[in-house]
Amino acid sequence: MRFLRYAGAIAVFSLAAFADTFTGTVVDVMCKDKDLASHTRKCAIGCAKSGYGLMTADGKFMKFDEEGNAKTLAALKASSKEKDLKATVQGTREGETIKVDSIALQ
After folding, report:
1. What is the spatial distance between Cα 44 and Cα 79, in angstroms, rounded to a whole number?
2. Where are the domains of the chain?
3. How many CB atoms lie within 10 A of CB 32?
4. pTM (2 decimals)?
5. Which fold has domain 20-105?
6. pLDDT tens, position by position, for the chain (106 residues)?
7. Three-state SS at 56
8. Contact 23/85 with Cβ under 8 angstroms?
9. Residue closest to 73 by CA, chosen among 34, 38, 100
10. First-to-last CA distance in the chain?
11. Which residues on neighbouring strands pair with residue 24, listed in sequence order?
Protein backbone atom coordinates (compact mmCIF):
# COMPACT_ATOMS: atom_id res chain seq x y z
CA MET A 1 0.00 0.00 0.00
CA ARG A 2 2.85 2.33 0.82
CA PHE A 3 4.37 1.62 -2.56
CA LEU A 4 1.19 2.80 -4.29
CA ARG A 5 1.24 6.06 -2.35
CA TYR A 6 4.85 6.72 -3.32
CA ALA A 7 4.24 5.74 -6.93
CA GLY A 8 1.23 8.07 -7.07
CA ALA A 9 3.22 10.94 -5.59
CA ILE A 10 6.05 10.38 -8.05
CA ALA A 11 3.60 10.34 -10.96
CA VAL A 12 2.02 13.62 -9.84
CA PHE A 13 5.39 15.33 -9.46
CA SER A 14 6.57 13.93 -12.79
CA LEU A 15 3.58 15.45 -14.58
CA ALA A 16 4.18 18.78 -12.89
CA ALA A 17 7.77 18.72 -14.09
CA PHE A 18 6.56 18.81 -17.70
CA ALA A 19 4.21 21.78 -17.20
CA ASP A 20 5.19 25.08 -18.79
CA THR A 21 4.49 28.63 -17.69
CA PHE A 22 2.72 30.95 -20.12
CA THR A 23 2.06 34.67 -19.64
CA GLY A 24 -0.18 37.02 -21.54
CA THR A 25 -3.70 38.39 -21.60
CA VAL A 26 -6.73 36.19 -20.97
CA VAL A 27 -9.49 36.78 -23.49
CA ASP A 28 -12.57 34.95 -24.69
CA VAL A 29 -12.38 33.48 -28.19
CA MET A 30 -15.08 35.82 -29.56
CA CYS A 31 -13.11 38.94 -28.60
CA LYS A 32 -9.54 37.81 -29.26
CA ASP A 33 -9.11 40.18 -32.21
CA LYS A 34 -10.28 43.28 -30.29
CA ASP A 35 -8.26 45.77 -28.22
CA LEU A 36 -7.17 43.57 -25.31
CA ALA A 37 -6.13 46.37 -22.94
CA SER A 38 -9.70 47.68 -22.86
CA HIS A 39 -11.42 44.27 -22.93
CA THR A 40 -13.45 43.95 -19.73
CA ARG A 41 -13.88 41.15 -17.24
CA LYS A 42 -17.65 41.55 -17.60
CA CYS A 43 -17.42 40.90 -21.35
CA ALA A 44 -15.14 37.89 -20.81
CA ILE A 45 -17.61 36.38 -18.35
CA GLY A 46 -20.51 37.11 -20.71
CA CYS A 47 -18.73 35.40 -23.62
CA ALA A 48 -17.72 32.31 -21.61
CA LYS A 49 -19.46 29.91 -24.01
CA SER A 50 -16.96 30.77 -26.76
CA GLY A 51 -14.11 29.53 -24.55
CA TYR A 52 -10.94 31.26 -23.42
CA GLY A 53 -7.34 31.51 -24.38
CA LEU A 54 -4.15 33.45 -23.82
CA MET A 55 -2.82 36.14 -26.15
CA THR A 56 0.96 36.28 -25.74
CA ALA A 57 3.12 39.40 -26.03
CA ASP A 58 4.12 38.37 -29.56
CA GLY A 59 0.46 38.26 -30.68
CA LYS A 60 0.02 34.49 -30.66
CA PHE A 61 -3.33 33.16 -29.39
CA MET A 62 -3.50 29.78 -27.66
CA LYS A 63 -6.89 28.32 -26.72
CA PHE A 64 -7.51 26.63 -23.38
CA ASP A 65 -8.86 23.11 -22.97
CA GLU A 66 -12.33 22.63 -21.43
CA GLU A 67 -10.96 22.32 -17.90
CA GLY A 68 -8.92 25.48 -18.49
CA ASN A 69 -12.07 27.30 -19.61
CA ALA A 70 -13.79 26.37 -16.34
CA LYS A 71 -10.76 27.45 -14.27
CA THR A 72 -10.55 30.73 -16.17
CA LEU A 73 -14.23 31.49 -15.65
CA ALA A 74 -13.85 30.84 -11.90
CA ALA A 75 -10.75 33.09 -11.75
CA LEU A 76 -12.55 35.86 -13.63
CA LYS A 77 -15.56 35.68 -11.31
CA ALA A 78 -13.29 35.82 -8.24
CA SER A 79 -11.21 38.73 -9.55
CA SER A 80 -11.87 42.40 -8.90
CA LYS A 81 -9.76 43.48 -11.88
CA GLU A 82 -12.01 45.07 -14.51
CA LYS A 83 -9.79 45.11 -17.62
CA ASP A 84 -6.27 44.39 -18.95
CA LEU A 85 -6.62 40.78 -17.79
CA LYS A 86 -2.98 39.70 -17.61
CA ALA A 87 -2.43 36.16 -16.37
CA THR A 88 0.11 33.47 -15.66
CA VAL A 89 -0.92 30.00 -16.76
CA GLN A 90 0.68 26.70 -15.79
CA GLY A 91 -0.01 23.90 -18.21
CA THR A 92 1.04 21.75 -21.12
CA ARG A 93 0.90 22.91 -24.71
CA GLU A 94 -0.71 20.51 -27.16
CA GLY A 95 -0.53 22.10 -30.61
CA GLU A 96 -2.31 25.45 -30.38
CA THR A 97 -4.11 24.50 -27.15
CA ILE A 98 -2.97 24.77 -23.54
CA LYS A 99 -4.07 22.01 -21.16
CA VAL A 100 -4.40 24.28 -18.12
CA ASP A 101 -3.22 23.11 -14.70
CA SER A 102 -3.66 26.51 -13.02
CA ILE A 103 -4.33 30.13 -13.87
CA ALA A 104 -3.59 33.26 -11.85
CA LEU A 105 -4.84 36.67 -12.91
CA GLN A 106 -2.33 39.42 -12.16
Report:
1. 12
2. 20-105
3. 18
4. 0.81
5. OB fold (Dihydrolipoamide Acetyltransferase, E2P) (2.40.50)
6. 555 555 555 555 554 557 999 999 999 999 999 999 889 999 999 999 999 999 999 999 999 999 999 999 999 999 999 999 999 999 999 999 999 999 999 9
7. coil
8. no
9. 100
10. 41
11. 87
